[in-house]
Design goal:
Layout (H helix, E strand, L loop, with lengths): L1 E8 L2 E8 L16 H13 L2 E2 H8 L3 H14 L2 E3 L7 E4 L2 H21 L1 H9 L9 E4 L2 H14 L3 E6 L11 H8 L3 E7 H4 L4 H11 L2 E5 L6 E4 L3 E5 L10 E4 L2 H17 L1 E2 L10 H6 L2 H11 L4 H8 L3 H14 L5 H10 L4
Length: 350
């Protein structure tokens, strides 16, 4: 708080206003563009209710010119006003609930104006003539992330690798760019987390990509979510919860992209294939015994989907799923699902 102090000037004792010990922190009005000196003048006027500049300079124990400059700045901010301009006038502080609130609103409008120009500034940044590329670029907003995802795929000439886990910035069935690039001969390999395969309609949408040539596998849990194009560029969420809205990093650093690609290969080798033509040459008896529907059921089961999710993906009842699994176990002479999975792998069915 401001405190009154007694000072002696030229042998005369006078009262002046000084800051108390609790005012050492950052000024309250600093974010509005107020200097510490201006804030002190404003708070003094609040306490006095209004004063002429000469008297105010004496109370503050400051040079007249310094107080005049502070008052001019406060007038520009709308925090003080002159009551009588005819003879230099008295200065009075405006009520904080009006003046400070108005100054806050003006600052907010100025910041919103700056924010509205960010997109234009980013266009200048991306199109700079030097051609210099940053090692990583933060991409924010779902619209920008979707566009970046599409551009990244279209830069690929050989291969696109991806870890697919929820939540998605682009719906599973909406990646028309993948179908386009597959048609151009670009190889796609994707590992899907079990939770993705359990989503309603996921099996049908995934089958569309498999028919177009995607190579897919399933894992119970994935360590992250990313897309890699030609082992040159990678797009990865920045949030710990992998939420796209938090933003994504477009990475160009070769070492980081190589590390992500190596992680992909390790997980790929341990995951369950989701398409029949990807398996090794099967045993002839097993091939004759297991139908395509049986193999699809096996792949989803080994990916870890619960029976209810299996039924949903295959368009069957849970009871029918149980009956088919028992039939497969009988054909393979197995007593447990784990033994059935081992049989399918040994026979080259998956």
């Amino acid at each position: 708080m401001l405190q009154w102090r007694e000072r002696v000037r030229g042998g005369v004792q006078v009262s002046v206003v000084e800051q108390g010990p609790d005012q050492k922190a950052e000024p309250v009005l600093g974010p509005l563009g107020c200097s510490p000196g201006q804030e002190r003048v404003y708070l003094t006027l609040l306490a006095l209710g209004g004063e002429r500049i000469e008297r105010l300079a004496g109370v503050l124990d400051l040079p007249l010119l310094a107080v005049a400059e502070d008052l001019a700045g406060l007038e520009a901010l709308g925090l003080v006003a002159r009551e009588d301009a005819a003879d230099g006038g008295r200065y009075a502080a405006m009520a904080p609930d009006v003046a400070v609130a108005a100054a806050v609103m003006q600052r907010q409008l100025a910041l919103l104006n700056v924010q509205s120009r960010i997109d234009a500034l980013m266009q200048t940044y991306r199109g700079r003539a030097s051609g210099f590329e940053m090692p990583a670029e933060l991409v924010r907003g779902l619209g920008e992330i979707r566009e970046c995802f599409v551009r990244l795929q279209r830069t690929a000439r050989r291969e696109v690798l991806s870890f697919a886990r929820l939540p998605f910035a682009l719906a599973l069935e909406s990646n028309d760019t993948e179908l386009e690039m597959l048609g151009r001969g670009v190889r796609y390999r994707a590992v899907y987390e079990r939770a993705v395969l359990a989503q309603p309609g996921a099996s049908e949408h995934l089958r569309c990509y498999l028919d177009a040539g995607e190579q897919a596998r399933a894992a119970t849990v994935l360590p992250s979510k990313f897309v890699i194009a030609d082992r040159r560029l990678a797009l990865i969420p920045v949030g710990a919860d992998q939420e796209p809205a938090a933003g994504c990093l477009l990475i160009r650093t070769r070492g980081i992209v190589d590390a992500l690609a190596a992680l992909f290969e390790q997980v790929w080798d341990r995951s369950v294939p989701l398409q029949r033509h990807e398996r090794a040459e099967p045993d002839s008896d097993a091939q004759a015994t297991f139908s395509g529907e049986d193999l699809e059921l096996l792949a989803l089961m080994l990916a870890g989907l619960p029976d209810k999710a299996l039924a949903s993906q295959l368009g069957l009842s849970v009871r029918t799923v149980h009956r088919r699994i028992r039939r497969l176990m009988s054909l393979a002479a197995c007593t447990t699902r784990m033994q059935l999975g081992w049989y399918a792998a040994r026979a080259g069915l998956l």
